[in-house]
Amino acid sequence: MNSLSPSPTPADSCGSAAPRRRRKDARPSELLAAALELFVEKGFAATRLTDVAARAGVAKGTLYLYFDSKEALFRAVVAQGIVPLFAAAQSELGDYSGSASDLLIELLTRWQRQVGATPLAGLYKLIIAEAHNFPELAQYYHDEVIVRGRAMLADVLRRGIASGEFRQIDVDATIDVVIAPLLSLIVWRFSLHRCGAGIEPGLLLQTHFDLLMHGLCAQKRKK
Question: What is the CATH number of domain 11-69?
Answer without folding.
Answer: 1.10.10.60
